[in-house]
Write a structure and sequence with these properties.
By secondary structure, the chain is of the alpha/beta class. It is built from four helices and four strands; from the N terminus they run E-H-E-H-E-H-E-H.
């Protein structure tokens, strides 16, 4: 896959050793890496709506999402090139991206807390949906 894929999450996990999005040492980062490999994505960037951790991984409020949307859009545009695809990982990222006007695909957040992802059929459907989207087959 030659298109750059930009994954957008909510905010860094408390488990992350730094403030990066989907750090490879976190459970979400490990699962996202599996998805990237399964979808045959060669170039991926991970960003978060917010670059700060929240207490107990608290979800961002609607007000915080609205305040951060413009900055997020600019950060995404800095990474975009022809054919880039944006993927919202979870509801917070999807709600924030909705206010930017950018086209994106919503996928479930790769957290181990997401019980839907314990179902391999559901997970495989999500990977198929991702592959279709990045190949412009939607």
């Amino acid at each position: 896959m030659k298109n750059k894929v930009i994954f957008v999450g909510s905010n860094p996990s408390e488990a992350s050793p730094d403030l990066s999005a989907f750090h490879p040492k976190t459970q979400s980062g490990k699962r996202l890496q599996e998805w990237i490999e399964q979808a045959d994505i060669s170039e991926a960037v991970s960003l978060n709506v917010c670059w700060e951790k929240t207490s107990n991984n608290r979800a961002l409020t609607i007000e915080e999402q609205e305040d951060l949307a413009y900055n997020l859009e600019n950060r995404i545009r800095n990474h975009m090139e022809a054919g880039s695809k944006v993927i919202a990982l979870g509801k917070t990222a999807a709600r924030t991206l909705s206010s930017t006007g950018l086209e994106f695909l919503e996928m479930p957040h790769p957290s181990r807390r997401n019980r839907k992802l314990n179902n391999p059929v559901y997970t495989n459907e999500q990977i198929k949906k991702l592959k279709k989207y990045i190949k412009n087959e939607n």
